[in-house]
């Protein structure tokens, strides 16, 4: 396998240079055969081609073009090695719904203002946001043992919780199936 | 199941039952607006107005920041040292953790069945490289080595030993190669380069300071001897305590063995070619001098 590597790189270079030289030699021969007179008035098909056009290698160029849309994640069963898990096939039977972000992640974010003010934000909520607030408060009480202050914004449909609880809320939402 | 968006909710119901809003019945929440501080206006904020008693404090003629009353100040007493000297000549490598790479593969943004290149990583929006800020490429970092589980053919500019071990443990191939800044800018954004209509340049070889890194087998350099690389793979497997899987028996062996030529920037495209994107054609030169230059 190691030997094949060195062979491969040298074979590649020889193949590339061979491809170049092959193209350059064939049009040159008939031009010399026509003779010395009127070389400048030689017929166009006997003049050496300046460039070669090809469309076979264009597939390599197509691989380099960046995609303009976010690709759909491939089908996984359960949690992936990186910790990401896909949403449930059918949304859970709850009065609220939390959509995934455009990068297919759970929309829970932490924020720090003025150096010490910690917040956790749950975005993209649809439905009964007050029921979600009640469930979140109850879950965090089980996990941490404290009643945490929360703020509901009905216009933007977001929920803010005081403190950093990104991991707990993300795990809880994924376990619910969102 | 989609819920119809009813922004406002209970607040909207309350609002609908109240009288019409006009400029006459608007008022801010009590405590929302606080008056600005004005000195010397009343019973206890008057007299000296919070400025103290006589001296420079009250007169407002204190000396400059950093002055320590006459002794040599801190910022002059400490001698200069060239911590940041030559900072603009130091190559930087954007770190990429194995955890992030695994995340990109899991979400389908990076295709593990094709050789992974810096172009593929940037196209997947996995990381941002700024060649104008002395970035010379990407470096693979150990973080996430224990959760990494993907068999890939990856080409980076620098890699830590733990990262190399994690990739080879899963049956993958890793190579470190050098890109000079102009070539790097082309590699990151190939489409704007193709639109320029210039021929693909040949990649330059590393300078003397980096040559030793890229000719070393422990770093899986692209200029290193393949037999030494195989020995280094075995040695690393012994050091980290895993069995080195045999790649030659793999079904994706052809893809894993794909490597770029020393002067090549893109897979499948040789230096000297011009890419015509609107007409989807590639133009190749035929002049002997050009061919000799581009294949040297």
Present the secondary structure layout.
The complex is a heterodimer of chains A (178) and B (296).
Chain A: H1 2-33, E1 51-54, H2 58-64, E2 96-98, E3 108-113, E4 117-122, E5 125-127, H3 129-144, E6 150-153, E7 158-162, H4 166-176
Antiparallel strand pairs in A: 2-5, 3-4, 4-7, 6-7
Chain B: H1 10-17, H2 55-59, H3 74-77, E1 92-97, H4 98-106, H5 118-123, E2 135-141, E3 153-156, E4 158-159, H6 161-169, E5 173-176, H7 181-188, H8 190-196, H9 208-214, H10 226-240, H11 253-256, E6 274-276, E7 281-285, H12 288-294
Parallel strand pairs in B: 1-2, 2-4, 3-5
Antiparallel strand pairs in B: 6-7
Helix pairs in contact in B: 6-10, 7-8
Give start-end ranges of low-pLDDT stretches of chain B.
Answer: none
What does the average pLDDT of chain A come to?
Answer: 80
- For the report, how would you describe the main beta sheet of chain B? 3 strands, parallel
Kindly report the spatial arrangement of strands forming the biggest sheet of chain A.
3-4-7-6
Tally of helical segments of chain A: 4
Measured by DSSP, the beta-strand proportion of chain A falls in 15-25%
- Mass-distribution shape of chain B: extended
Query: What percentage of amino acids of chain B are in beta strands?
Result: 5-15%
Binned, the helix content of chain B reads 25-40%
Biased composition (Basic residues) (chain B): 38-52
Organism (chain B): Acanthochromis polyacanthus (spiny chromis)
Main location (chain B): mitochondrion
Keywords (chain B): Mitochondrion, Ribonucleoprotein, Ribosomal protein, Transit peptide
In short:
By secondary structure, chain A is α+β, with helices and mostly antiparallel strands.
Summarize the structure in words.
Chain B: Residues 95-175 form the Large ribosomal subunit protein uL15/eL18 domain. Chain B: Keywords: Mitochondrion, Ribonucleoprotein, Ribosomal protein, Transit peptide. Chain B: Its main location: mitochondrion. The complex is a heterodimer of chains A (178) and B (296). Chain A is of the alpha+beta class. In chain A, 37% of the residues lie in helices and 17% in strands. Chain A contains 4 helices and 7 strands, in the order αβαββββαββα. Chain A has helices spanning 2-33, 58-64, 129-144, 166-176; strands at residues 51-54, 96-98, 108-113, 117-122, 125-127, 150-153, 158-162. In chain A, the strands form 2 sheets. Chain A has a 4-stranded antiparallel beta sheet, with helices on one face. The longest helix of chain A is centred in the first third of the chain and has 32 residues, at 2-33. The two termini of chain A are 47 Å apart. With 296 residues, chain B is α/β, with parallel strands linked by helices. Chain B has a domain at 92-266. Chain B has helices at 10-17, 55-59, 74-77, 98-106, 118-123, 161-169, 181-188, 190-196, 208-214, 226-240, 253-256, 288-294; strands at residues 92-97, 135-141, 153-156, 158-159, 173-176, 274-276, 281-285. In chain B, a hairpin with a 4-residue loop joins strand 6 (274-276) and strand 7 (281-285). In chain B, helix 6 packs across helix 10 and helix 7 crosses helix 8 (190-196). The mean pLDDT of chain B is 92. Chains A and B meet through helix 1, strand 1 and helix 2 of A and helix 1, helix 4, helix 5, helix 8 and helix 10 of B.
